[in-house]
User: Which sequence fits this backbone?
C-alpha cells in the first residue's frame, strides 16, 4: 500500500522520458538503482501504464508475472508485497503492452535543506473500490454510475481512502509534495467540494486523462512526498 522511510533515508523518484515495456523498465530500474550504490531491495514504488483495462482474470495473470521480478529482487515473499504501485490506461496514445512510466527507490538522505524533517513516502494508487470479498463490480462505489451524484460519491470515497492510507502512516495531505488524480470522466463539477477543499493544504494536482487499469473503477488517486525527482 505504501512505502515510508525512517530518519536518515529518503525516496528518489525516477521518471523515464518515454514509456518502457515492463521487462525493459525493470532492467533500467535495476541498472539505475545499482549505479546509485543501492541494492534492488531499495525499489519501493512503480507507476505503470497499460493498453487497456484488464479483465479480472487478465489482471490476476498480469500480477503473477509482475511479482516474479519482485520475488527475484527479494521484495516479495509470496504473500506480502511492500511495493507501492499505480497502474492506469492512457486514453490517448496508449502503450502496446504494460509499461513503466516511473519508479521510486530508497537512498541515504543527502541532508539537503529541501529534505526537511518529514519522512518521505509513496502511497499506492487507490480507487472507489471497497475492500472485502466479492467481485470488482460488486465492490466499486456506484458501479457504472457516471451521473453527477455518482461521480461525486466516487471522488469522495477515493479521497477518503487516500486520506486513510496517509493517516495509517501518521501523515496528512499537507505532508505530500504531489497528489495525482486519474480519470477520463468529467469530475470537474465536484472537484471544488470533494477534492480541492479536502486536499487544499497540499493540492498540486496532476490530472491524467486515463482510467485505472485493473478494476473497472473510474477514479484513481495516488500521492507522495519525494524531495528528489529525476528524468532518465
Assistant:
Amino acid at each position: 500500500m505504501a512505502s515510508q522511510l525512517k530518519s536518515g533515508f529518503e525516496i528518489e523518484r525516477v521518471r523515464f522520458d518515454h514509456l518502457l515495456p515492463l521487462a525493459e523498465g525493470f532492467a533500467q530500474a535495476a541498472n539505475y538503482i545499482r549505479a546509485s550504490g543501492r541494492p534492488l531491495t531499495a525499489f519501493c514504488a512503480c507507476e505503470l501504464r497499460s493498453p487497456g483495462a484488464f479483465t479480472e482474470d487478465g489482471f490476476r495473470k498480469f500480477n503473477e508475472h509482475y511479482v516474479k521480478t519482485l520475488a527475484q529482487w527479494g521484495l516479495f515473499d509470496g504473500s506480502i508485497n511492500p511495493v507501492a504501485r499505480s497502474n492506469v490506461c492512457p486514453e490517448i496514445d496508449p502503450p502496446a503492452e504494460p509499461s513503466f512510466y516511473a519508479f521510486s527507490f530508497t537512498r541515504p538522505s543527502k541532508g539537503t535543506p529541501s529534505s526537511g524533517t518529514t519522512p518521505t513516502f509513496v502511497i499506492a494508487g487507490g480507487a472507489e473500490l471497497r475492500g472485502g470479498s466479492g467481485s470488482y463490480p460488486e465492490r466499486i462505489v456506484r458501479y457504472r454510475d457516471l451521473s453527477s451524484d455518482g461521480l461525486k460519491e466516487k471522488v469522495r470515497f477515493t479521497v477518503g481512502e487516500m486520506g486513510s492510507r496517509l493517516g495509517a502512516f501518521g501523515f496528512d495531505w499537507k505532508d505530500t509534495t504531489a497528489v495525482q488524480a486519474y480519470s477520463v470522466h468529467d469530475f470537474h463539477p465536484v472537484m471544488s467540494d470533494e477534492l480541492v477543499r479536502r486536499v487544499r493544504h497540499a493540492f498540486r494536482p496532476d490530472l491524467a486523462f486515463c482510467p485505472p487499469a485493473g478494476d473497472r473503477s473510474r477514479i484513481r488517486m495516488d500521492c507522495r512526498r519525494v524531495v528528489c525527482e529525476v528524468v532518465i
In short: The radius of gyration is 17 Å.
